[in-house]
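For the sake of transparency, this paper describes our internal protein records without simplification. The tokens are whole numbers drawn from a learned vocabulary of local backbone shapes. One such record is reproduced below, unchanged from the form in which we store it.

. . .
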Amino acid sequence: MEFIDTRIGMMATKIFVFIAITISVTAILSGVNLIPGNISTTIQVLLTMPPLILLLYLNDRFSVSFILTFVMSVLICIVNEAPYMISGTMMITFIYVLNTIPNINYQKILKWLTFTMFILFVSFVFINLVTGWGSNNYEMWRINGYIYRKSLGFSQPNITMMLWLSCILSLYSLDMKMERLTSIFIGVTTYIIYTQTQSRTSTYIIVFACFVSILIGNHIYDRLGKTVSKLISLLPILALLISIYALFHSYSLGLDSILSGRLSLYQQFYSTYGIHFLKTPQLENAMFDNGYLQALLAKGIIFTVQLLCILILIGWKVTQMRIKDMLLFGMYIAIGFTETALQHFELFLPVVILMAQSNNMMQEDRYEHTINK
């Protein structure tokens, strides 16, 4: 039995290494406008879902709860006539496989993900700095004056910074002994990139993570209580409620200016189209900078409830999170406030793998404790 579990784990690890490379490559290529976003998503679906479903089928790892959830997710896509909503089905499948298949080498997957993301990101930035290829630079008004923003080879500065955030999430997911030195390097590098892109949200999130990591060092691997862990798992609900509050509450012109006119834009979308159970076609390609409101206004209540359940499930399975788990989960949830990034798998994958590893470690510790008794 142990040999069979080891074989299945090795097979799952190889599949997820392939998935990590696929997601990294397609995300970066889409970010530099070499392939359209919808093509990138299609490639991700076609190259990740079949091997995972085949893995579960060949090893008889299907459960009734997974089948029901999977079917319901697919039905949401069909009822909405929105193939792109298959992202919810992918998220469900990733979470289930990572937490069900035994003996997965999580760190090997994360190392490949980190290596691929960094190599590709740095390569395209270098090409841009040397040749000017892919420059999508522009000036814009922000609060009290114009700022100049460089894209460093990507489609726009915010995309550059969000892909850098995915690199950092992957790097922080690794088991490292030199947390403080790594965080200082990340902080300095992030500031340099920020001076070029002037992209704020991702920068603030990364700098906050660096500050916490430098402050507590290797204590970042300490586990906290069950109550705190469950409360952290519920952060997506808080994020959605704050987003809804911003949608309905009157705002000051100063605050709207700081947020680059986002608040007025969201309220305009709501007053024009409202909120519906299914998708709102007129808003499918609208400019949203909030992942929670995009889900609610453009994709409908049903999809939003599914997304919320998925986000909560990521952390809920870990009975006692490490500080590192909480930090990375919080970073992922926070980016949804000002970017439509919740279904970007280059951001989702390192977090869900880290959580699955943490859950697996807890189960092993519990098993060893039971044996020692």
